[in-house]
Amino acid sequence: MIKVNGFTVTEKDFDMACAEKKHYTRKEKLDKNDVDKITNQLIEATLLMEEAEKTNIEVTEPEIDQMFAQIAANFETKEAFEDAVAKTGETIESTRDKIKKNITLQKFIQENYVDKTKVSDEDTLKYYEANKAKFISGEEVRASHILLKKEDKELALEIHEKVLAGGDFREYASAHSECPSREKGGDLGSFGRGKMVAEFDKAAFELQKDEISDLVETQFGYHIIKLTEKSVGGLKKFEEVKDVLKDNMKNTVINNNISKFAQDLKAKATVEIDEKLVEKRIA
Fold first, then answer.
1. Burial of 238 (0-12, 13-18, 19+ CB in 10 A)
2. Which is higher by pLDDT, 176 or 10?
3. Is the Cβ–Cβ distance between 176 and 148 less than 8 Å?
4. Is this structure's pTM higher than 0.70?
5. Which domains does the chain have, with CATH numbers?
């Protein structure tokens, strides 16, 4: 489907990349821009892999075994994993070979880009000072809730009375809540204003830390809300964002350097694309 310096990117490889794109973007169909990006990414990945293999990077069998086991662990049984491999047209041997190539590429990027890229505290502070508007957050709360169906109002009132009297909120959420958040004891995480339905939003932001709401009725049923954290927002201090900011800046530099190197390789490469086959992937 695509030939890069004599190496062939098969239709199967292309379709797997398309399937991943649909999964991550939650799209049912891909447009021309999506397919063009996939085409370019596969070409650049092939060129980078070619360069990585020239460096004679060592990949040991235990390293391959470890990654192979991690992939297989996503399946309930060994047989289910082997069936999934067979359905893609691969074999265990070809899967292990792909794993070896992926580890080779990972090591190449680690040695040539990640390990060689440094971002100083000084550069991080300069960026923070020049872009303070990016570090202003709005008012946020973190809350947990117990959700009961509208027909279960009496049960909701009973649970509400018990948690007000000191009952374990997490336990009641885990046992009775109709929301998937019950798996986390009712924890909804942090959110800003306007992220929840109006009645829930209003009630949550009126609470103080550790306070429990009255019953709150929404289209989903009756909620019992407990506020666990509250932030008034404003400019975040440098020390609060330094570590994450430094990591983000480093990743940006790494990605830009890899992209430039790949583009330079592409400019010198012999690339043949079966445009008709590519166009068939466009919705």
1. middle
2. 176
3. yes
4. no
5. 2-118+245-279 (1.10.4030.10), 139-232 (3.10.50.40)
